[in-house]
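From the pipeline queue, job 12 of 40. The input is one protein chain; the requested action is below.

Action: predict structure.
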Amino acid sequence: MSISGVNGIGATAYAYMNSSMKTTGEGNFASEVQKAGESQNTTATASAWAGDMVIPYPPNYSGFTYDSSISNKSKEEMTMDEYKQWVMNEMSQMPVSAWVRSTYSSGATVIKEEAFERMKSDPEYENYVLNRVRSAYSVSSLPAGSNNVSYDVIGASPEECYGYAGPVGNSSSNISGNEKSWWEKRHEKMEELLAEQEKEALKRAQARRAQAQENFLQSQLESRQRLQSFFMEKMQNEQGTVNMSAFQSASVSASAVSAYEDTISTFSKSVIESQKL
């Protein structure tokens, strides 16, 4: 199955290798795209969604329409055709960076039939595939020229997924056994960016927690000071009447302040300990 007439775009595909695949023969990507087209042709009478899914890169979903009622079904209730439409809809909503659209002239994402079969029954693998596509769409600011190609073939397991992204004209024959592929470098860059974002988020959370703790302690200090001022003023107003009852009243007031301070201190310590956890 293809969209926007992408059958045949693999004619200029270039082979490559990555950590999960050995060096592939040149024309391998063109072969996969051709197989997807043939699969669609042989099953056209059965369903327009039968066979492998081929999507151009940079992506173009202009020819795709989605039946929103499918979203009301569980994955178990969906037919395979409906599930493929649901996946296509998810992918069509993924943001594509301006860098991808301006620096990639051609390419394709091929999702194999067996990949859909596993995705439909395995949420973890479904998430892996969607994140893989999302990463390919959102990548930016890598050192590259203005004419690049990207191919990604997604199979039934991570080990069966492979792709190439880089300048037009490069192939696996130009990559030494110890050199990382363009695809690997791109994903490493994305992992570095995500790790940096996590660090920044942690720093912001710690700063907010520290500020909240400081604000709480300051409010308790102000409350203690107001209470002390209240009792001191009351004692001064009663100074004119020196008798045992006034002395006892002052003693009771002092005891009340002390008890209040002990309560606040205990509560503040418990809050500080909870903030440390």
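Job complete. The helical segments are 28-42, 80-92, 98-103, 113-121, 123-138, 182-237, 244-276.
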